[in-house]
Specification:
Strand content: 15-25%
Number of strands: 27
Strand order of the largest sheet: 2-20-12-15-11-3-4-5
Number of helices: 16
Shape: globular
Helix content: 25-40%
Length: 529
Amino acid sequence: MERAGGAGAAAALGQRLAEGGQGHVLRFWPELSAEARRELAAELRGMDVAEINRFFRRARGDGGGAAAAAGLDARMQPVPRDVLGSASRDRELLPRWESRGLAEIAGSRVAALLLAGGQGTRLGVPYPKGMCDVGLPSRKTLFHLQAQRLRRLQQLAEEQHGTPCNIPWYIMTSGRTMESTREFFVKHHYFGLKKENVIFFQQGMLPALGFDGKILLEEKGKIAMAPDGNGGLYRALGAHGIVEDMERRGVQSVHVYCVDNILVKVADPRFIGFCLEKGADCGAKVVEKTNPTEPVGVVCRVDGVYQVVEYSEISLATAQKRGPDGRLLFNAGNIANHYFTTAFLKDVVNTYEPQLQHHVAEKKIPHVDITTGQLIQPEKPNGIKMEKFVFDIFQFSKKFVVYEVLREDEFSPLKNADSQNGKDNPTTARHALMSLHHCWVLNAGGHFVDENGTRIPAIPRVTNGRSDATPADVNDNLKDANDLPIQCEISPLISYGGEGLEKYVKGREFCAPLIIDEDGIHELVKNGV
């Protein structure tokens, strides 16, 4: 009876696939074990073949996209100053913004949402990026640093407002990273956060397709699947009831960010306060792009609508344009760091998400040849992966703002292994954090001395071609892995953004390496001995 039912279910599945032009995925069904059949059937049952075919047609059909892109340069406008807040140009407003943000945090109205679906493949590790240890003296991972920043922020808000508060932490994983991420948090006791305030949910997956729209097989009994991009966030928010959970908790502001930035200011009160003051429903944190050919997307307006234009879509002539102040005209470099109101996210999930179109990435996708059953490792792109981007929803915002921060304070992504091109790797990430913490010590009145007891001079930080009063490490450009900053690490539990360090360092001299954490001050070498 059961066998007959199983055969009937398989026949129905085969018919549904065949009607959608995807019947070939069962080509090797007779060869599969009972277990492999069950797994493949389960995977296919959850797949809407008609929807996938529709995605493919929309993504591959030009829809005016190529023609529109051709005239993009003429339709681009830079971010106007009235929607721009700047950490360097609006310094007198920063305390007000920070105070507003901390008040919101103290009221438990702020959540952080982490995009953590990426594997560490390019880093040469077989686990999620958030579990990476970049070689800091403390050996803390990215997840650990971010969790401790949230704990410190809760503490700051409680101290200022006298009420206990929580910042719920929503963590979006992919199918590949969910289990290992969850296990890592359990193993480390949620890094001191309350378990009920750490909420995991999973983004969707889509099959990889050949250029003809046919689903590719990774193995004879397995579909080649890929995450649906960080813009898969919005569909996942709906599928897992996340917005409802936010509403139930009273969350009104959400900070969304990517896992791989070691300097990220999670739930940054200045950013949140700025967005609240402006009455924004959507905001993008950016760093100033100083090199026209830097391969980052820029936040700008196209036909009056805010979006991110990828570096590859802009002509060199447009990328090189400068304003009267000498800055690049299109300089708002996107760092995947965003503010949304919960109400806006609800509108996106319920109304706008289905309107989003997939972006197509042509890839070399290993697959099983349907005729021979052999695994093929292609030498050139043979198919597509479809994904959406988190910034695709800017166009639906009714009040969009941009918040510019200093790269050396807030942005050092971890994308490559140390063996690669010397950019965005564990060494540059480690150096960026230690250089920032060196700055904090200097700003709080501390000094570093060499092995002879001679003070190491503080080199003024140069920002946008001007020497600022803020002292900083000699490593102004943190991209060169050969620069060796002073080894200095300050636990996020001691300071979120450089605050409160005077009692530890003012008027004191230190030998590196220096670690300041909840157990006190640690110097490996004291007085040259």
